[in-house]
Amino acid sequence: MPEARIVLPVEPLSDGVTALRPWRESDVPKLVALCQDPEITRWTRVPTTYGITSARAWIAESRALVSDGISAPFALVAATGGELLGSISLMRFTWEHGRGEVGYLLGREARGQGHATRALRLICAWGFQVLGLERIDLYAATGNAASQRVAERTGFTREAVLRSYHRQLGTALDMVAFGLLPREVDVTHIKPQISA
């Protein structure tokens, strides 16, 4: 599979409850607020010192990542009202093998409402249908049971535990490796926009 050019959809990917759209400058204040949650810095690569400068840099970088074909980052928002709830990205592509990785974070107020599962279904369906991926990987720390449940609800298969795989806040974490193939994601209620 040749290296793909990534074009984010013009209209948000949406299932009527959760939506994914490109990042905007107006997201900066809410993104900073979301990233103050210790659970986010505990399980993701978000630094504990995340502030306005970090958020502005991320939003600017997100555009470059898309244009360079490196990543497909989306703001995770409520389909009605557009409130910023979190972040989700397809990244670390290995185009010759048709493979990518998904990573996400969800703000405290949005947890327990199904948004993470819905967002994973949306982005994975888009990755398979539009980017032509044949496999999507997801890694969750062994201690992050909530993220593991989201992966399993989405249809990911638990495949292995990778020992001391990821260093977070100075500690080596064991990670559960999950994989998803196109036939394993339930897309019956999802109609992602096909981008040109």
Describe what this molecule looks like in 3D.
By secondary structure, this protein is an alpha+beta fold. It has a domain at 13-136: Gcn5-related N-acetyltransferase (GNAT) (Aminopeptidase), CATH 3.40.630.30. Helices cover 28% and strands 31% of the residues. It is built from five helices and eight strands. It has helices spanning 28-34, 38-43, 52-67, 115-129, 145-154, and strands spanning 13-14, 18-21, 72-78, 84-94, 99-106, 135-141, 157-168, 171-180. An eight-stranded mixed sheet has the order 1-2-3-4-5-6-8-7, with helices on both faces. Strand 4 and strand 5 form a beta hairpin. Helix 1 (28-34) crosses helix 3 and helix 4 packs across helix 5. The two termini are 19 Å apart.
Number of DSSP helices? 5
Strand segment tally: 8
Instruction: Please state how the strands of the largest beta sheet are arranged side by side.
Output: 1-2-3-4-5-6-8-7
Structural class comes to alpha+beta
Beta-strand percentage?
25-35%
Using the alpha-carbon principal axes, give the shape: globular
Give the distance, in angstroms, between the N- and C-terminal Cα atoms: 19 Å
CATH architecture designation of the domain at 13-136: 3-Layer(aba) Sandwich
Task: Sketch the topology as an H/E string, one letter per element.
Answer: EEHHHEEEHEHEE
Report the biggest beta sheet as strand number plus sense, adding barrel if it closes.
8 strands, mixed
CATH topology of the domain at 13-136: Aminopeptidase
Estimate the helix proportion, in percent.
25-40%
What do the pLDDT scores average to?
A: 88
